[in-house]
Amino acid sequence: xxxxxxxxxxxxxxxxxxxxxxxxxxxxxxxxxxxxxxxxxxxxxxxxxxxxxxxxxxxxxxxxxxxxxxxxxxxxxxxxxxxxxxxxxxxxxxxxxxxxxxxxxxxxxxxxxxxxxxxxxxxxxxxxxxxxxxxxxxxxxxxxxxxxxxxxxxxxxxxxxxxxxxxxxxxxxxxxxxxxxxxxxxxxxx
Length: 190
Prior knowledge:
This protein is of the alpha+beta class and about 190 residues long. Helix content is about 25%, strand content about 10%.
């Protein structure tokens, strides 16, 4: 039970409260999604002939989504990744970031890795929680646990560097196991 303030403390508190401006809570932007595909409405039978509507040009569809998780590597690469024989050239840790800042950090890290000529980027994002949407939220966190890890494939598919990403593979236990992934980058042209 909280104690009551004496008159001096109450007066001091009122002075302090009068000088404070409340913070405006900014909304956290969601992960970007593909633009919606526009479909024309189904024609309805009409009893009277209506004038024809002007024909609009077809909307440009977004590029096909790349699935880096299903991308194939040669057997040698997959074997080396499974055994932990591949050493990451660069690594980033996305723990403690919001979805927006984690995505921005990931895109920045991929850009830096490509400039350095790196082939393997280790991304530590935390474990993917099965059924995270059914779990109660802890400590008032609005995001389900594992949200960053669950968003990684989509972020990579729509990344500005998507054409330079070859594959996405789970990391070896020595590099973080289920809480991390390898992002395999295309070899730079010399």
